[in-house]
Design goal:
Elements: H1 13-22, H2 24-27, H3 32-43, E1 53-57, H4 63-71, E2 76-81, H5 84-90, E3 98-101, E4 114-120, H6 129-139, E5 140-151, H7 157-166, H8 178-186, E6 191-204, H9 207-217, H10 233-244, E7 252-264
Parallel strand pairs: 1-2, 1-4, 2-3, 4-5
Antiparallel strand pairs: 5-7, 6-7
Helix pairs in contact: 1-5, 7-10
Function: Converts the free carboxyl group of a malonyl-thioester to its methyl ester by transfer of a methyl group from S-adenosyl-L-methionine (SAM). It allows to synthesize pimeloyl-ACP via the fatty acid synthetic pathway.
EC number: 2.1.1.197
Protein name: Malonyl-[acyl-carrier protein] O-methyltransferase
Length: about 270
């Protein structure tokens, strides 16, 4: 068993939904990584793909719903997210025909109704990725494509290691191992067109800038069992000193291990 599957190691869905709902208004201002990852995922879509209906799974503020609508103007778009606050933000901006509150592990869609499921940086919050893949297989038409990006172990490792040096508590969200993505995709009943892990680093002038961005994204520590209460000044000073050991000429690095997967339902 990996740390991802350990009892009590995951944030519950209500906490995730509430955190991202609160972040809806600030999310786009700090979502540079999310934009670049989504653009890279779009580039991995099969060029011959011409969906009649697409699903933006974990649509967030709807940025990529609008991109998909422009890319496939004849298609009907559905935008789905667990966070009601994100949907309230996205709906007036358009892009999709329908905006739906729903769970990737139990899609409110009938069998074989979509040609493309696009999901960028959402499924890392799903405890049961097997169910995500099973639901995608069910909802896709034969020949339909699931394209997802996610995060795996090694993400924010600099922050994790710095906290470990300070107090040993888990202050950073846990993620699956890349090997788990490999195994689960291989066992999904979908044809694997591509699966890749790619490191991407952001740089920050100081630790405060990084933690502000994580909070604005709604992606700060959502682990159950995380330390409660305000973090003491002495611990923050110790954290800053520990993180400074990672400083590079461009600034303090925050490395994301991004997983890109493209799978197709057999004909």
């Amino acid at each position: 068993m990996t740390e991802w599957h350990e009892q009590g190691s995951l944030p519950d869905k209500r906490r995730v939904a509430a955190s991202f709902s609160r972040a809806a208004d600030s999310y786009d201002s700090v979502a540079a990584l999310q934009r670049s990852v989504g653009i890279e995922l779009l580039a991995r879509l099969p060029v011959q793909l011409a969906p009649q209906r697409w699903l933006d799974l974990g649509c967030g503020t709807g940025h990529f719903s609008r991109v998909l609508a422009a890319r496939y103007p004849q298609a009907e778009g559905v935008a789905l997210d667990l966070a009601e606050g994100m949907l309230r933000h996205a709906r007036p901006l358009g892009g999709a025909r329908r905006f739906v509150a729903g769970d990737a592990e139990s899609l409110p869609l009938r069998d074989g109704c979509v040609d493309l499921i696009f999901s960028s940086l959402a499924v890392q919050w799903c405890a049961d990725f097997t169910s995500v893949l099973g639901e995608a297989r069910r909802a896709l038409k034969p020949g339909g494509v699931l394209a997802f990006s996610s995060l795996c172990v090694g993400t924010l490792q600099e922050l994790r290691d710095s906290w470990q040096a300070v107090d040993g508590f888990v202050h950073v969200n846990r993620f699956r191992r890349f090997s788990e993505y490999q195994q689960l995709c291989a066992d999904s009943g979908l044809q694997l067109l591509g699966l890749e892990r790619k490191a991407q680093s952001l740089h920050f002038s100081d630790l405060r800038q990084l933690t502000h961005e994580l909070k604005a994204l709604g992606a700060h520590n959502l682990n159950p069992g995380r330390p409660d209460g305000l973090t003491g000044r002495a611990r923050i000073r110790a954290l800053v000193e520990a993180y400074e050991q990672f400083r590079q000429p461009q600034g303090l690095p925050a490395t994301y291990q991004v997983v890109y997967g493209v799978l197709q339902k057999p004909l």
